[in-house]
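ok trying again, last paste got cut off:
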Amino acid sequence: MAESPAVSARALVKDFGPNRALDGLELRAEKGQVLGVLGPNGAGKTTAVRILTTLLRPDSGHATVAGHDVRSEPHAVRRSIGLSGQYSAVDQNLTGYENLHMVSRLYGMSRSRAAARARELLDDFKLGEAADRPAKGYSGGMRRRLDLAGALVAEPPVVILDEPTTGLDPRGRMDTWQVISELVRDGTTVLLTTQYLEEADALADDIAVIDHGRVIARGTSGELKSLVGGERLGMVADTAHELPRVAEVLEEVGTGSVRVDERALRARVAVEAGSRALTEAVRRLDALGLEAHDIELSRPTLDDVFLTLTGETAAADEEEQRDGESARPPSEVRSAERDG
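nice, full thing came through this time. structure:
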């Protein structure tokens, strides 16, 4: 008999008035693996997270987490998960150590165990030196890391991370990736929503791209990139006046429509035989007496995947809630045991 998945969502539907946030969503995360969930703003990522963490009830469909039904066994689900959401659940007036000690105590740990676990996590997330400082003095990235540490206090079998590295600097992002990788090596299952394809590259065993509340593509990062196809050639024009002419040259050597960023004076297009296309573009620009800067030949990015699959680019800001409400903070999950 096949082992049941750690996270399963089947035919999930959720409406907010006339707006359908989830339209038959299907997700499956195997035990000890990372499922990356990608999608543009309003795709339904956060709505799905709220259902899987019992903060929201689906209108129809079925979902289980760690073998527990989100409808009929919400308390068992909450005992089985850690959640780091888009909004930091950090008490600004407590120190980093006090925040984690408090969460540990809410999970029922003894004082000595809570103290040890708090110090352990502070070290893991490179917050040891700031452990005894009030969190209101932390940078945004430090507060994000402290929030993620709080999600891992009880060493849950399933961890749900809703864009966990948003706002982190490159070093903080790499440290977070390392912690997530160690979690998976220890057998934890991770459901990760992200807008960084490199994050999915580094962490996800499987990726689901969702749009308008349903999965429109699924596979590894490499498989998704193959759907987009080819390489991307980008150039920065010398002046705004020259940008249209640079875009014309790229259109001539490319295989699709040119994307132009007028603010950055940058044009970008999909190409085949990338190095040959690059050489030809430079030759044509030279013949026109034009000069381009920051010439780049690269693999498809997250925006390329989104643009091809959904018709829009990925946004770097937080996902808008279709019901007009802000997501409830992860502290509601962490303290849920007090309610039942």
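cool. The first strand starts at residue 7 and ends at 16. The chain has two domains: 7-219, 230-299.
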